[in-house]
Target: Mannitol dehydrogenase family protein
Amino acid sequence: MTASHLPRLNRDIAACVDNALTSSLEKTRAPGIVHLGIGAFHRAHQAVYTQCAMELEGGDWHIIGVSLRSETVAKQLNPQDGLYTVVERDDSGSKHSIIRAVNQVLVAPEAPEKVLDAMCSSNIKVISLTVTEKGYCYHGANADLHLEHEDIVHDLAHLNRPRSAIGFLVSAIKRRISLHLPPLTIISCDNLPNNGSLLKQMVLSFAQQIDKELARRIASDYRFPSTMVDRMVPASTPDDLSVYAEQLGYTDQGMVLTEPFTHWVIEDSFAGPIPAWQAAGAIITKDVHAFEKMKLRLLNGCHSAIAYIGFLASKRYVSDVMQSPMLADFVLHLMHHEILPSVEAPEGVDIRQYCKELLQRFSNPKLQHSCYQVAMDGSQKLPQRLLNALQYQLTHQGICAGISFVIAAWMQYTSGRDLHNAPIAVQDPLAKPLSELASDNVQEWVLNMLAFDAVFPKNLAYNARLVSEICGWLRRIRDDKNIELSIAALLK
Ligand code: CS2
Model:
């Protein structure tokens, strides 16, 4: 137990895994999980819990990883037999473990039929996903599956060669049902509120388009637990790989770098067996929502704020932002005065201590998490990270200058120009329409932005107080051309 009473990964087991080269784990490596979206986060989080679970309580739970877009991870991991190193680093040093939970990586665009075969194997009991927010093809304004999304249109027409995670899931489930295979537990591990229910809704909406009976079977037999996942995992750079190659004495193309902290809360709702994740430190509970809300708003909300103000203040890493007293004070203000009021502590968690630990995690100078990386896909992130807390503050006549400031900073960012007019390579599925809203007429820009219903809920569009807050901060940011100066005005 730690000060905020959150259980952590069983460290002794992590160490024992590291020395387990000759364990039974090595001999069989039989798969039980297909994971869609095997990026760095999965490799530093669920795969580590799964390996610990196998070490503790056994079971055939190796992972077949799937890349839905690029072949990069397959090229890194397959020649290494799926093995890779997780390096945890902070001020006190670094620690590494070799993870052997991944069997192989399939590349969906190259061989969708292989992915479907894997998902339809009778050994597979769990399918998990980290496909990022945009991978759910969710349409904010309709609060449902985006039926006009090009991947969904494609998958509805070519169910045997899908592209999207949703298309793969429905195609595989349809086949599993026709083969009389047992139902699966399908676990979303993305940073979305009620991620399990959301995924279920997307899968059912897609299935309805094909066959209502299929949708009914999925709803009754398959389980979609919600989860709260937490570990900061920056993208590894070629420099990192060469530095660690020297330190470790081997080259690992699939190495992932992360922080010591890790946390996983899973809703207790399963269609069949699961690995002994609980023994490895995960919490399995009936009520995951309190954890999700706390984490999405306090951690991810502040993280996105740090990313936009940090980028515009020419800070490279999240920890650089925390080193500026002015910017760090802003984060503190945002966290405590504007986000925290809308969050209730999950049972047994000391939320003040949780906030304190978050500030320490953001400040970890060894993590090197770039503002640019966290700034990606803001249109998909802001609603659950900051706009829910904003709605709470507006309804309760609370302060919202900080959140409005972050929205103004994000708007400047999405314009594709920084405060000195240098171009920004904005990575966001809605980058084009967002940049087209930018205007020298700030009032017009803000009104059009708040009416952009793929991001902003309808009730925010006409909120006079919000319009005036954001206009004020956006003008100020653009006039000052110095984020720290503008923040000084906010904090005074
Ligand atoms: C980050 C998250 O990139 C981002 O948007 O806020 O990936 C964050 O590092 C994790 O959610 C931490 O658990």
